[in-house]
UniProtKB/TrEMBL annotation:
UniProt-listed Pfam families: Indigoidine_A
UniProt organism field: Longivirga aurantiaca
UniProtKB keywords: Glycosidase, Hydrolase, Lyase, Manganese, Metal-binding
EC annotation from Swiss-Prot or TrEMBL: 4.2.1.70
Subunit structure, as described in the record: Homotrimer.
HAMAP family xref list: PsiMP_glycosidase (MF_01876)
Residue positions binding Mn(2+): D136
Name of the protein described by the UniProt record: Pseudouridine-5'-phosphate glycosidase
């Protein structure tokens, strides 16, 4: 096997106990140092508090790791050699024995290889604004269309073209379920302004959807949207003004491709004086707790 599975994770998988995969790009490229290491540990604790085993996924010294020990987690959070890796980068990075933090796409791919059914993240990648000209659409979408994992997220970031992202998910056969909501969440905001077709109200219902899909060989992933708690969301006026400024700044700086998402997240964290960071952390932790409950229900 070309994967190194942490003993605690391997043990849980062998005995059918619940495991939740966690991505690492959010640690290396989504959250600023030095908070990122502490937050990465807190997210793992949130999974544990929900009764599941956390498996943070990354590539360390060319080895895809499913579940990280403290040294590996520290490398992902602090080492400048860590690059953002999507599915297409995995083989090259392994051959070159490099260090990489996995996106939603690469994390989903590796989680599925390891036999993990549920994955928690902050916000999914999607279709970028201006994609009509740039063709910038995250491989998160195409990967989920062929990878049967259940991804718990707070929707997609408002930095993206939300309407186009939802259309693409429909084309790609990826179902979008609102968790206790009829609205598609907007990451920093509980409501992106768009509706979802399906609502689920408890973890057992999500597990039932997973089970039915598996029986029917519907092999795409499932997106479970968990909106940030209303009291935790970013002030809307602040959000809208920072978004306009951030998009202009990215354009002016000539930021392109895989650098766009990290640039805009960093812009938000600075421009809101850390408030967007608090929101980001709150929603990831909430997603980790829900993902654990879904993994528990799916294992039952
Ligand atoms: N959402 C966050 N923080 C992040 C990301 C998403 O809250 O850092 C990362 C995820 O790893 C996601 C990636 O897969 O951004 C999407 O990047 P791109 O648009 O380049 O595909
Ligand atoms: Mn992109």
């Amino acid at each position: 096997m070309h994967l190194q599975i942490h003993p605690e994770v391997a043990d849980a998988l062998e005995s059918g106990r619940p495991v939740v995969a966690l991505e690492s790009t959010i640690i290396s490229h989504g959250l600023p140092r030095p908070d990122n290491l502490r937050v990465a540990r807190e997210i793992e604790d949130s999974v544990r508090s929900g009764g599941a085993v956390p498996a943070t996924i990354a590539v360390v010294d060319g080895i895809p790791r499913i579940g990280l020990d403290d040294d590996a987690l520290r490398t992902v959070a602090e080492d400048d050699s860590v690059v953002k890796v999507s599915v297409r980068d995995l083989g090259t990075l392994v051959a070159k024995r490099g260090n990489g933090a996995t996106t939603v796409a690469a994390t989903s791919h590796l989680a599925h290889l390891a036999g993990i059914l549920v994955f928690a993240t902050g916000g999914l990648g999607g279709v970028h604004r201006g994609a009509r000209d740039t063709w910038d659409e995250s491989a998160d979408l195409t990967t989920l269309s062929t990878t049967p994992v259940t991804v718990v997220c707070a929707g997609v970031k408002s930095i993206l073209d939300v309407a186009a992202t939802l259309e693409r998910l429909e084309t790609l056969n990826v179902p979008v379920l609102g968790y206790r909501t009829d609205r598609f969440p907007g990451f920093y905001l509980a409501d992106s302004g768009f509706a979802v077709d399906w609502r689920v109200d408890d973890p057992a219902e999500v597990a039932a959807v997973m089970h039915a899909r598996s029986a029917l060989e519907c092999d795409a992933g499932v997106i479970v949207c968990n909106p940030v708690a209303p009291e935790d969301e970013l002030d809307r006026t602040l959000h809208d003004s920072v978004l306009v400024a951030g998009l202009a700044a990215a354009d002016q700086a000539g930021v392109r491709g895989k650098d766009v998402t990290p640039f805009l997240l960093e812009f938000f964290h600075t421009a809101t004086k850390g408030r967007s960071l608090e929101v980001n952390v709150a929603l990831v932790r909430s997603n980790a707790v829900l993902a654990a409950a879904i993994a528990v229900a799916a294992a039952a």
